[in-house]
């Protein structure tokens, strides 16, 4: 049971996921600092002279009823920045590397019709190399040598 767990942990996918979580957490801290220190003041300017930022106070005497629209906009900006960086820095290069270095298996499972077509083509090419021709109704004609051999085996 522990060997299976160890194999699971040492697979490339799990290690890649662990690295992605650590890098994502570190990058999230950078983006959060950027939005808190650059974007939030810009959003607060749009909110006017309100000390709490851009939003609406439901009850005038209760600050807990403040609906903070600026915080929601900041969270959306955080998400968009992180998603863009992950996509353009991690996903696009990884997909390009997969296309360049990983080849798909050349032999895909053929359908029954494909196999029959291949057999027909092989038979036609072998008949052409032996000098035999096919009749118009689709039946294959025998070469003279093969017909003679067949007659000798019947006797």
Automatic annotation (TrEMBL):
What are the start and end residues of every segment in region (Disordered)? 129-155
Query: GO: which molecular function terms?
Result: mechanosensitive monoatomic ion channel activity
Q: Does this UniProt record's set of keywords contain Membrane?
A: yes
Cellular component, GO annotation: plasma membrane
Provide an example Pfam family for this protein.
Answer: MscL
Q: Write the record's keywords in alphabetical order, separated by commas.
A: Cell membrane, Ion channel, Ion transport, Membrane, Transmembrane, Transmembrane helix, Transport
Note the superkingdom of the native organism: Bacteria
Give TM regions.
12-34, 66-92
Q: Does the keyword Cell wall biogenesis/degradation apply?
A: no
Q: What is its main location?
A: membrane
Membrane topology type, per the record?
A: Multi-pass membrane protein
Q: How does it assemble?
A: Homopentamer.
| Role summary | Channel that opens in response to stretch forces in the membrane lipid bilayer. May participate in the regulation of osmotic pressure changes within the cell.
Return the similarity comment.
Belongs to the MscL family.
Q: What is this protein called?
A: Large-conductance mechanosensitive channel
**UniProt source species:** Rhodococcus opacus M213
């Amino acid at each position: 049971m522990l060997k299976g767990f160890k194999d699971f942990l040492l697979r490339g996918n799990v290690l890649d996921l662990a690295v992605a979580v650590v890098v994502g957490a570190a990058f999230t801290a950078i983006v959060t600092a950027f939005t808190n220190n650059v974007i939030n003041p810009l959003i607060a300017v749009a909110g006017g002279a309100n000390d709490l930022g851009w939003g609406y106070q439901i009850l005038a005497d209760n600050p807990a009823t403040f609906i903070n629209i600026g915080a929601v906009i900041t969270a959306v900006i955080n998400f968009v920045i992180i998603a863009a960086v992950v996509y353009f820095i991690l996903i696009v290069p990884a997909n390009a590397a997969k296309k360049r270095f990983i080849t798909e298996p050349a032999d895909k499972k053929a359908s029954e019709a494909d196999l029959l077509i291949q057999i027909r083509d092989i038979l036609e090419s072998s008949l052409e190399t032996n000098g035999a021709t096919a009749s118009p109704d689709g039946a294959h004609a025998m070469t003279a040598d093969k017909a003679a051999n067949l007659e000798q085996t019947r006797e």
